[in-house]
Specification:
Blueprint lengths: L1 E3 L2 H13 L4 E6 L5 H13 L2 E6 L9 H6 L4 H11 L4 E3 L3 H4 L18 H5 L3 H16 L3 E5 L3 H13 L5 E5 L19 H6 L1 H13 L5 H13 L4 E10 L15 E9 L2 E8 L2
Parallel strand pairs: 1-4, 2-3, 2-5, 3-4, 5-6
Antiparallel strand pairs: 7-8, 8-9
Bound molecules: pantoate.
The site of pantoate has 10 residues, from strand 2 and helix 7.
Pfam family, one: Pantoate_ligase
Keywords: ATP-binding, Cytoplasm, Ligase, Nucleotide-binding, Pantothenate biosynthesis
EC number: 6.3.2.1
């Protein structure tokens, strides 16, 4: 596996690969790699000649400085995981100045309103930070295909929108959520939970499964009430939001309409760790 330590080294590498006509699959990450990331690389392997990943903890997408500080960073561990997986041909480890040559700040994006929903409300500026880093990485890596997890479903929709609006010649693929045996969606943040709390957190997945079942017969307001009750009595767990949204616009819906697709979205704080999950409903 090639380790590309800065933009110059990356660009030379990409130029050589493009000359050889290689199709590049790309999965950007912020490190703290887990099975969820490996599932992105597996999807990329099937459709490309070359799989590239990047590890960069992007400062502009953290609206909370404490979250940025606490974000797990262990590059050697990540490189060992990548090497052992045998799924990745090259990993790009940009320096901050490779992504932000001048100021470390976001550009402003208009994602046709997708940015105003859910995480956009809870984390102001977050999606400008994501758009900025992903657009820059796309420009440098020049992939044919790029892969993102459905766990961050709104991020995936926003990156698709950005790619379409900027007319970038890249196909964006969403990869299904990778879950632990108890159903908890894998996330780098899970490392911050004790084993007991990780086990308790299976309730998030169980709640989504129940919501999917209730969605067949109950009104959306009743589903929301039932979900609220589940978390009312839970110590160490605080439901930040649960809602059902149109899968295309990501706007919260109060009533099902025929012909639309819906998805349930949930955010729960467990001992101060913010866990996010979602599930397609119909
Ligand atoms: O999903 C992530 O890990 C990040 O938001 C991404 C897409 C790598 C951008 O920093």
């Amino acid at each position: 596996m090639e380790i590309l330590k800065n933009k110059k080294v990356l660009q030379d590498f990409i130029e050589r690969q493009k000359e050889m006509g290689k199709r590049i699959g790309f999965a950007p990450t912020m490190g703290a790699l887990h099975e969820g990331h490996l599932s992105l690389y597996k999807a990329a392997r099937q459709e490309n000649d070359l799989v590239i990943s990047s590890i960069f903890v992007n400062p502009t997408q953290f609206n909370n400085p404490e979250d940025l500080e606490k974000y797990p960073r262990d590059t050697q561990r990540d490189l060992d995981i990548l090497e052992k997986s045998g799924l990745v041909d090259a990993v790009y480890l940009p320096q901050v100045e490779d992504i932000y040559p001048e100021k470390t700040e976001s550009k402003k994006y208009n994602y046709d309103g997708l940015e105003d929903e859910m995480e956009g409300k809870s984390r102001p500026g977050h999606f400008d930070g994501v758009g900025t880093v992903v657009e820059e990485l796309f420009n440098q890596v020049k992939p044919n295909n790029a892969y993102f997890g459905e766990k961050d479903f709104q991020q995936l929709a926003i990156i698709k929108k950005m790619t379409e609006k900027k007319q970038l010649p890249i196909t964006i693929t969403g990869v299904p959520i990778y879950r632990a045996e108890n159903g908890l969606a894998l996330s780098s943040r899970n490392q911050r939970l004790t084993e007991e709390r990780r086990n308790d957190s299976r309730i998030i997945y169980e709640t989504l499964l129940k919501a999917k079942e209730w969605f067949k017969t109950l009104a959306i307001s009743d589903i929301k009430e039932k979900v609220g009750t589940i978390f009312d009595n839970k110590h160490n767990m605080e439901l930040e939001y649960f809602l059902i949204a149109d899968e295309k616009t990501l706007k919260e819906t109060g009533q099902k309409e025929n012909g639309n697709s819906y998805r349930a979205f949930i955010v729960v704080n467990v001992d101060g760790v913010r866990l996010i999950d979602n599930m397609h409903l119909d």
